[in-house]
Design goal:
Length: 154
């Protein structure tokens, strides 16, 4: 990757496209069920973490962003947003687009089809609301394999 900031070249994960104010605007657009004009990206440089992910002399990179939850997405909306994601990468790494040998885009429907737990393509498998996190889940302690209900012992 021809990163402008060369120190990014050794990072396994890179966040691009927004500062704190930008993230606030991005989250607000998602809440309004709008596609944010400027994508915020999470980029994984697989070859940095493990060179065996790519043949010698090449790199393997993935990126994702968040879209507002909708049951149906038009393919052209997904393609347009993927192009905008590439623009963010190109800005941070001029010449990036000319190096692409292959691209696979999976929208929310494709993600859910591959794993039904990803309802609507939600990578977290559902809500990230506080009431579903760690010890706050329905009853504290139910994250274990056992339950508070005694039953017959074999």
């Amino acid at each position: 990757m021809p990163w402008t900031n060369r120190s990014v070249a050794t990072a396994g994960t890179v966040h691009l496209g927004a500062d704190l104010d930008g993230l606030t605007s991005y989250a607000a657009a998602l809440t309004r069920k709008e596609i944010p004009a400027d994508p915020f990206l999470l980029v994984g440089q697989m070859s940095v973490a493990d060179p065996s992910h790519s043949p010698p002399g090449t790199e393997s990179l993935w990126s994702y962003t968040h879209l507002p939850f909708r049951r149906q997405w038009r393919a052209e909306d997904i393609a347009t947003h993927a192009d905008r994601m590439e623009e963010v990468l190109e800005e941070a790494a001029p010449g990036f687009r000319s190096l692409i040998l292959g691209r696979h885009v999976a929208g929310p429907a494709e993600l859910e089809k591959g794993d039904p737990s990803l309802v609507g393509g939600a990578l977290g498998g559902g809500t990230a609301a506080a009431y579903q996190q760690l010890f706050l889940r329905p009853i504290p302690g139910l994250g274990r394999a056992d339950t508070p209900v005694d039953g017959p012992r074999g």
